From TrEMBL:
SGNH hydrolase-type esterase domain segment(s): 4-90
Native species: Oliverpabstia intestinalis
Transmembrane segments: 119-144
Entry protein name: SGNH hydrolase-type esterase domain-containing protein
InterPro entries: SGNH_hydro, SGNH_hydro_sf
Entry-linked Pfam families: Lipase_GDSL_2
């Protein structure tokens, strides 16, 4: 699927240019026109859900946060079944906010496991600093006395 390749390339580029940034990806919600789901089942020969699965896969592969608007059931009012109108933009924004808040809850509840190198290196550096200070004091005592 060309979409997945292009989406992954976009995430790879963004991660490369902004390595400290936390990226959020969102699946595509459902466009509604006059109260009816109008989003096409297929777009450019690909099933609508294939696009969302490509987004989910790429977000996981590149360790991005995922706001899964489709799984959350976010629908939005549209001018043509695809492009949101003013109310639809508000609905999408509310979905994004809800999704980001849910994603933050997930990440704050996970405990970060520290590997042995994450605690050992600072300890060794601390010990090294103490040894250097002791050596300085001994050298000063020898040369001053």
């Amino acid at each position: 699927m060309d979409f997945q390749i292009a989406y992954e390339r976009m995430l790879w580029t963004m991660k490369g240019r902004y390595p400290k940034a936390q990226l959020y990806c969102a699946t595509i919600g459902c466009g509604v026109l006059n109260g009816q789901n109008m989003f096409p089942e297929y777009l450019n020969g690909n099933a609508f859900e294939d696009y969302n699965q490509a987004i989910r896969t790429a977000a996981q592969k590149y360790r991005c946060h995922l706001v899964d608007l489709a799984a959350m059931g976010v629908a939005y009012d549209s001018v043509d079944g695809i492009h949101p109108n003013a109310r639809g933009m508000q609905q999408l924004a509310e979905g994004w906010i809800r999704g980001i808040e849910e994603e933050k809850k997930k990440t704050t509840h996970r405990k970060k496991k520290r590997s042995w190198t994450q605690w050992l290196i600072p300890v060794l550096l601390g010990i090294e600093a103490v040894i250097v200070m002791v050596l300085i004091v001994l050298i000063l005592k020898v040369f001053i006395l």
